[in-house]
Amino acid sequence: MNVGIPANLDPDSGNTFGIYNAATSTNRTTGIRSYAANTYYKFAAHRSNLVVLTEAQATKIELDNSGKDIIARGVSFQFKGKAFTAKAKKEVILSAGTLLTPQLLELSGIGNTNVLKKHHIAPKVDLPGVGENYQDHILVSTTYEVKKGFVTYDNIGYNATLEAAAEAQYQKTHDGPLTASNSMLSYIDLYYLASSGKIAHMHRSLWEDLEKEKPTPLQKEQYRIQELWLRKKMGNVEIILHPGKSITDHSSERLADDAELIRILWTNPEEQHFLYFNYYVHSTSVLSWKYCGLFLPLANWSVDLHHPQHLNTSDPLTPPNIDPNYLSKRIDQSILVESVKFADKIAKAEPLASMLVARQDPSPEVSSDEDITKWVKDNVRTLHHPIGTAAMAPKSLGGVVDDKLKVYGTRNLRVVDASVIPMHLAAHLQRTIYGIAEKAADIIKNDSGL
C-alpha cells in the first residue's frame, strides 16, 4: 500500500483490483488442504452408481455416426495394460482438462478434418476449433535476500531444528508454517506499472503485431475485448509476495521450455514433487515476488494431436504437442518488464526496505529495459492455468461446445472442464472451474427432467 495500491475490502464483488487476503483452500480446523477429492467425492463415494477408477487412461470416445446426430455410445480406456470400454446409456461427459480434452476429441474423430486425416483418423465432426485457442497465465519471479533475523520458508527447508518445531506444532495444533499459503496478493492495472507514453507504445505494438497475423474470427473478438480491458482500471497483472525462494529455471538444463515442463508433468506426476520442493538449497533466507503474473496475456496458442516426431501419431498414450507461443505479442513482454521494475519499487519501500539486503534474481546489474527483457525471455513460465481448447462460443467463430456444454454436432457428448472457457480471466481458476461443474450438473439434471 506504500506504493499506492489501494486495499480491496470486497474482492469477491467481481472487481479484483487492489490488495487483499484471498480465500484459501485450507480447512483451518484440521490444517488440511480442502479440494474436490475430500469434499465432493468424499460425500458421494458411497453411492452405488459412482465408480472412480484411478490409474486408467481414456483413449477414445466411441461415437455412432449412423444417424443425423453423432451419438456417444461409450468411452474406451486402458487399465493395467488391458483395453476396456464403458458403455453410456445417456451421456458421456468429458473432463480430461485443457490439455487432454482436445486430444481425446481428435482421437475420436472430432476436430479439424485436415488434422484428423493427417493422422489417419476418420473425421466424424469437423470442428476446426478443437485444440486451438489455448491460453494460460504467464509469470516471472524476482528474488531478494533477507537480512539475518527474519525467518522465511527457506529456514524451515534447510534448518532441521526449525523444521522439527514446525512439524511438532502442526501435529499438536494443526496450524503453523506447514499450513501457510500465499494468501496476500494484489491485482493492478497498466497505469500503476508504466507511464501513459509507454502504455500508448504498448497498444501500438499490439496492433502492429496483429496486422502481421491472420486471426481467427474468435481471436478477432477476443483481441477487441482484451484491448478494451487493457485501457480500464482492472487487474491485468497479479503480484504475490512469497516468503521463500521461488523457481526461475525449472531445474536448469532439464527443462528447456514450458512445453517440456507440461509434458513431464503429463507423463510423470511424481515430478511435481521435485519441481516444487527441491529448491530449498540456499543458505540465505530469501523473499520472492513469486508471481509477477500477466493475467490477460494476448498470445493465443494451440494444442496439437501428438508430438510430430512420433511415427504412430494416433497412439492415445502419446502426450499432445503443445506450442505455448510465449511472448509472441510484444505487449506481453513489455508488461512483464514493467512488472519486474514495479516489484523492485515495492522492495525499496518500507517496511520491506529495512528487511532486505539486495535483489538476487535477476542480479542488481540487470537494470536496463533491454537487460530485463532478456531476463524475462529466459525466465517466463506458466502459472498452470490453461484454458480454452474446447471453447464455448458460436460454432461460426470456432467454438467447440454450445451454451449447454454439448459438443457441436453431437447429441449427448458434453465437455465440463477449463477447456470450455473461451477467454482468460483476471483471476485464479479454481472457483470458476468448480462453478462450471456445478452449473453443468444443473444443466444435465434439467435436461434429464430431474
TrEMBL record:
Coiled coil: none
Cofactor: FAD
SUPFAM superfamilies: FAD-linked reductases, C-terminal domain, FAD/NAD(P)-binding domain
Gene Ontology molecular functions: flavin adenine dinucleotide binding; oxidoreductase activity, acting on CH-OH group of donors
Domain Glucose-methanol-choline oxidoreductase N-terminal: from-to ranges: 97-111
Entries under PROSITE patterns matching the protein: GMC_OXRED_2
Catalytic machinery residues: 385 (proton donor), 428 (proton acceptor)
Record keywords, A-Z: FAD, Flavoprotein, Oxidoreductase, Signal
Superkingdom of source: Eukaryota
Pfam assignment, any one: GMC_oxred_C
Family matches, as Gene3D superfamilies: Cholesterol Oxidase, domain 2, FAD/NAD(P)-binding domain
Membership in a protein family: Belongs to the GMC oxidoreductase family.
Protein name: Glucose-methanol-choline oxidoreductase N-terminal domain-containing protein
